[in-house]
């Protein structure tokens, strides 16, 4: 019965096309494999032990480090890798330091005028229809 339900769910998501026969939801597939191997972290118990990590796992992006927290192939650096993932992604994008923007009244006035122009353009566009 499980196979029939999976096929129906896959058809609902990806269609009946021959090119989509092997497609599946990536995160569901990884979670199922992790559960079979015994490396899927238990978020409820993790919430009581390490709430910061549990929140990162639940609300953050899915990454392979979470499957290295428990079970075979456990890695001590997995927690730190999960908690510092955002900084490691953004670091290569910050190749130069920028000067802080000045609080010049003229720049503020230009921003307000630009916003006003956009609102007026949108308003007049709606009146034509």
UniProtKB/TrEMBL annotation:
Statement: the UniProt record of this protein carries the keyword Transmembrane: yes
Gene Ontology cellular component annotations, sorted alphabetically: membrane
InterPro entries in UniProt: Flavin_mOase-like, Flavin_mOase_2, FMO-like
E.C. number(s) listed in UniProt: 1.-.-.-
Pfam families: FMO-like (PF00743)
GO molecular function, one term: NADP binding
Keywords: FAD, Flavoprotein, Membrane, Monooxygenase, Oxidoreductase, Transmembrane, Transmembrane helix
Localization terms from the record: Membrane
Main location: membrane
Essential cofactor(s): FAD
Topology within the bilayer: Single-pass membrane protein
Transmembrane spans: 108-128
Root EC class: oxidoreductase
The keyword Lipoprotein appears for this protein: no
Membership in a protein family: Belongs to the FMO family.
Protein name (record): Flavin-containing monooxygenase
UniProt source species: Cricetulus griseus (Chinese hamster)
């Amino acid at each position: 019965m499980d196979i029939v339900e999976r096929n129906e769910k896959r058809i609902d998501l990806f269609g009946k096309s021959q090119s989509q026969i092997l497609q599946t939801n990536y995160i569901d597939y990884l979670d199922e494999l992790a559960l079979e191997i015994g490396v899927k972290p238990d978020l409820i118990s993790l919430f009581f032990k390490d709430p910061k990590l549990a929140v990162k796992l639940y609300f953050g992006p899915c990454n392979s480090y979470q499957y290295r927290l428990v079970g075979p192939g456990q890695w001590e650096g997995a927690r730190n890798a999960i908690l510092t993932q955002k900084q490691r992604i953004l670091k290569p994008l910050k190749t130069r330091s920028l000067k802080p923007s000045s609080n010049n009244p003229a720049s503020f006035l230009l921003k307000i005028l630009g916003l006003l122009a956009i609102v007026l353009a949108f308003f007049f566009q709606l009146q034509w229809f």
